[in-house]
Amino acid sequence: MQYCKLCLQPDTRPNTVFTDEGICPACNYFRELKKVDWQERGEILMDIAKNAPKSDKHEFDCIIGVSGGKDSTRQAVFVREKLGLNPLLACLSYPPEQITERGADNISSLINLGFDCVIVNPAPETWRKLMRHSFERFTNWAKSTELALFSSVPQLAIQYDIPLILWGENPGLQLGDLKTLGRTGYDGNNLRNMNTLSGGALDWILEMHEDVGDLIPYRYPTLEEFEKANIQIVYLGWFLGDWSLVNNASYSCLNGLQIRNDTVENTGDLFGVTSLDEDWVTLNQMIKYYKFGFGRVTDYVNEEIRLGRISRDAGIEIVEKYDHCCGDDYIQSFCEFIDISVDYFWQKVRDSVNKNLFDIDKNGNITRKFKVGTGL
Length: 376
Description:
By secondary structure, the chain is an alpha/beta fold. It contains 16 helices and seven strands. A hairpin with a 5-residue loop joins strand 6 (358-360) and strand 7 (366-368).
């Protein structure tokens, strides 16, 4: 395990490759931003907006996937106010047991801002069953739900004849998932190659699920379907020099966004502004930490380091203190939803711990072997 020399990104992140200098893709991209001609990028974006394909069926110019959170709220407002486009918003909603009141209010706030929004609700029992199988097989409950999340927008784009999909950040450039890189910095059609969607993403579900009809929401459209419908995904984050977690949250709060008010010790959410529509992502981030040696706090801190708001040493202290955090109440409510015991939950977590990075003592306590910022 090695760390980026500039931030606290470890090389254990899937699909990431450091430069020969020991710099992670995200930091390398951030350095390149200093050379960017933002006016030129703005002109490219305006050309995309001006040439957005029109349909005889409706008045929508593009489609944006939204949760009501910081990124989607900023995108929706920017696209309408700055680009002059009429977007259709697409929201994949969670079952009642999972969605937070805060999340429902944030979607309502977007609708109250005057946006049209299509809300997709996959069958709750299939959702719950697949979530449990995801957790039992991968110790990652979101393995199935993310399939539905990423699939819903292009599915609706095809059904509504809206070829232009506007997405947020480029995971290849801004997070380091290099397999998603496209022909240009804003081309998102290789999103299908991300860790969640690639390599027969539905195969494991088909093995255990008899009723294939229930799986329609979990099918990411094929490349052939993309080409037939002339679908193009464009990353908005590539065009915006001030695209960041904190900036997006600030813009969105000014437009009615409600944020999380729980403690960092319970959520690992330093600013209370991520994944606002549900809370179980908190325990998935904790599990990610035990698998790969980094969690949500690392991602937060890395951005702050790149923006020069904190030092790498200060970031180390924050990561050491909070990267593993998850409140017991979130674990309890998740276990009740998928009908497992808390003891079974921790048994699965311990079975998935990366033994190269962590030790587990006879009492089940998990301690890291590595030093944050240095590695092994």
